[in-house]
Here is the input.
Amino acid sequence: MKLQGIIPPVITPLKDRDVLDVDGLERLIEHMLVGGVHGLFALGSTGEAPSLSYAVRREMITRVCKQAKGKVPVVVGVTDTSITESLNLSKHAADCGADAIVAAPPFYFPSDPPELLEYYQHLNSDSPLPLILYNMPGLTKVNMTLDTVKALMDEPNIVGIKDSSCNMMYYQKLLKLAVGREDWFTLIGPEELLCESVMQGGNGGVNGGANLAPKLYVQTYEAVMNQQLDKALAIQKKILQLGDALYGVGKHVSSCVKGIKCTLSVMGICDDYMADPLHRFRNPERQVIKQRIRELVDADVIDLSQFPQHAMG
Here is the structure.
């Protein structure tokens, strides 16, 4: 299996602390599939995975796999402080028909490179699914060294890496490690770097904004792959506009996820309830989001025809 293209990190629509918004999730997945995405990533950072109960995580895996079956690959985040729980999620994902698991380093006790290497080796050896590495130092406080990645590339069943370090020098070195490995893939997390990363040889993006405007991200990727670089750069500017407008409305690091959820709620896709300790935008921020959406529609960044209904008022 080689993942490439746009694989959105699916938000987890909630109706309450431990209740999945099932109808909203179905509309969201259909919205992204119609938008042409190349895969789905359930239970990533944008999906608030570490804050969800295991029951909700398992239900999320079940429903995403069922709806996407035969349409696009599904990869499942199993990041946890307990390797046993990561393996439990991995086995459930396999039973549901997922294609691979994704794991960032455990995020409580920081692990040194030798420990991290052994951790991934143990996780990989006991997992029934292929394993994708996930470098997310901003949240895990652990940076996956290039030596660790290089060593893990020799492990059977470890198939690729998603990098959310925001460090393009590091990303370029990851691409050099992958030279000669046609079965290995390297994906970028930050959407601001999507165009640049694919131009340099990356295989695609795991970009939160593709929950909102999937066609925009797919068109950027496809333009680069077709050597239409001017077109790709022009569309990338729209991606930057979307992020600038919607991700900075709140005051906290979580504003990106809140902005995505609030926008999807305004556009009639799903509920915007957040997993504790986070909370959804209050009315003042919601009104700002509505105004920003209008501006993005006028700028041809968001296409209202892609949404089943909306409540902009």
Observations:
- The CA atoms of residues 49 and 64 lie 14 Å apart.
- The domain at 5-306 is CATH 3.20.20.70 (TIM Barrel).
- The longest strand covers residues 158-163.
